Request: fold
Amino acid sequence: KAGVTQTPRYLIKTRGQQVTLSCSPISGHRSVSWYQQTPGQGLQFLFEYFSETQRNKGNFPGRFSGRQFSNSRSEMNVSTLELGDSALYLCASSSGTSGGAGTNEQFFGPGTRLTVL
Amino acid sequence: GDSVTQMEGPVTLSEEAFLTINCTYTATGYPSLFWYVQYPGEGLQLLLKATKADDKGSNKGFEATYRKETTSFHLEKGSVQVSDSAVYFCALTPSGATNKLIFGTGTLLAVQP
Reply:
């Protein structure tokens, strides 16, 4: 079974631009979550989508948005980029349905490294 | 809000030494608890988990027990190998929040032969 794929793997943008990152989950998985990883703040939850609906949201400004398509692929968009948005953006997929909260294993992709100049 | 605190690294050990990485959490209700590992050049992988108090998660010789009374989930291994060198993250999913992970800062483990 193919793992979680993220494109592009590396991206360089300048302040004020916008960027779109893509995540393809494992086949059959309906939940996609996004995380930001930086040396200063560590790993922080951005949001989770399940069956095309945002189910959970972290504490990030409205410049960060996402969506999920009917095939479960997800995109994350950051508008008006700031230097502090430079980070590794990770996406994770899970079935999202079994058991109670926290019982689904999340499978992480390799990440997209975004550099904002 | 909910949070996870884990010991600062790096932790440097000799092969076959005993490993403990401390992790404590703050959360309402009954969160699920996890340890994730990030090997050099690889993505995050689930190492083990525990979903209720007194549960013990185990995998690849690593163990951690969900202690509600001390709000802790310490990671242990009796005999580490060079191949265990990685960054270890303690994390929780809050009650009622499926698939939302709150991570600790990570602990770098370096095992020397």
User: Anything to note?
Assistant: The mean pLDDT of chain A is 92. The two ends of chain A are 37 Å apart (CA to CA).
